[in-house]
């Protein structure tokens, strides 16, 4: 992840406005997917309007800043539009700047005069799964060329990696290596397991209930903080 983000930052320095918009989307997608331990399609559920709202908030827990990712959609065969609010630390232990990438994504969408709809949609509000996968995996191929100690040369990046699964697998492996409790990892990876945590559910109605997240679901902040 750090090698990937370092590559993105190098591109950022020399990029024009349009290129920075693309880089903001690519970087934010990767950071959200990894730090939130999401499957690829889940990241496309991030709602731009609520992301702007929560990123502008000065949210803190135990003196540590965090942001909230609001995912909008139908979860686990239950009907109705509901938000799944996932708190992520603003900057992880290893230095992944989650809030910075959220701010860059918001700025890019605002430059397109867009403040509602999917955070990772284009100007027409359409998501581009294939585009994200291609752009991200091409950069992982570049990482492989520069750092074969990280991605061995015998690895077939386009075959062995994919945004549908690799970020979650990587986050889970890193969390285990960092000593994150198995229960915390399970909670991050299973949305419905919140129901076993003091009876609270993450699938909140359209009204704002992020105060509940701040008080009861801070396990996810602990998970992302360790990465």
Short characterization:
With 227 residues, the chain is of the alpha+beta class. It has helices at residues 2-14, 17-35, 40-43, 48-56, 98-111, 129-146, 157-160, 166-177, 182-189, 210-216, 219-225; strands spanning 60-61, 64-73, 82-89, 203-204.
Topology:
Elements: H1 2-14, H2 17-35, H3 40-43, H4 48-56, E1 60-61, E2 64-73, E3 82-89, H5 98-111, H6 129-146, H7 157-160, H8 166-177, H9 182-189, E4 203-204, H10 210-216, H11 219-225
Antiparallel strand pairs: 1-2, 2-3, 3-4
Key attributes of the depicted protein:
227 residues; alpha+beta; hpI Integrase, Chain A; 4-stranded antiparallel beta sheet; 10% strand
What does it look like?
The chain contains eleven helices and four strands; from the N terminus they run ααααβββαααααβαα. With 227 residues, it is α+β, with helices and mostly antiparallel strands. It has one domain: hpI Integrase, Chain A. A four-stranded antiparallel beta sheet has the order 1-2-3-4, with helices on both faces. The relative contact order is 0.18. The model is unreliable at 74-81 and 192-212 (pLDDT under 50).
Oligomer: single chain
SS elements, strand count: 4
Low-confidence stretches: 74-81, 192-212
Instruction: Measure the end-to-end span.
Output: 10 Å
Adjacency order of strands in the biggest sheet: 1-2-3-4
Major β-sheet profile: 4 strands, antiparallel
Structurally, the number of domains stands at 1
> What is the overall pLDDT average?
80
- Percent of residues in β-strands: 5-15%
Rg over CA atoms, rounded to whole Å, is 17 Å
One letter per element, helices H and strands E, the order comes to HHHHEEEHHHHHEHH
Shape verdict: globular
The count of helical stretches stands at 11
Query: Mind telling me the CATH class?
Result: Mainly Alpha
Share of helix, binned = 40-55%
Structural class: alpha+beta
The CATH architecture is Orthogonal Bundle
Predict the CATH topology: hpI Integrase, Chain A
């Amino acid at each position: 992840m750090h090698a990937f983000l370092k590559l993105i930052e190098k591109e950022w320095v020399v990029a024009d406005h349009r290129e920075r918009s693309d880089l903001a989307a690519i970087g934010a997608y990767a950071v959200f997917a990894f730090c939130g331990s999401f499957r690829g399609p889940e990241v496309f559920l991030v709602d731009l309007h609520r992301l702007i709202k929560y990123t502008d908030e000065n949210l803190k827990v135990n003196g540590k800043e965090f942001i909230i990712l609001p995912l909008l959609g139908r979860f686990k065969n239950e009907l109705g539009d509901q938000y799944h609010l996932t708190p992520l630390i603003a900057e992880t232990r290893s230095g992944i700047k989650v809030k910075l990438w959220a701010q860059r994504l918001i700025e890019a969408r605002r430059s397109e005069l867009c403040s509602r709809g999917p955070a990772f949609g284009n100007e027409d509000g359409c998501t581009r799964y294939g585009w994200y996968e291609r752009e991200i995996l091409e950069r992982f191929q570049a990482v492989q060329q520069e750092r074969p100690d990280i991605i061995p040369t015998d690895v077939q990046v386009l075959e062995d990696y994919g945004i549908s699964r690799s970020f979650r697998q990587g986050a889970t492996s890193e969390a285990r290596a960092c000593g994150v409790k198995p229960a915390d990892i399970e909670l991050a990876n299973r949305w419905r397991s919140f129901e076993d945590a003091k009876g609270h559910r993450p699938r909140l109605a359209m009204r704002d209930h992020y105060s509940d997240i701040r008080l009861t679901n801070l396990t996810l902040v602990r998970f992302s903080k360790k990465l």
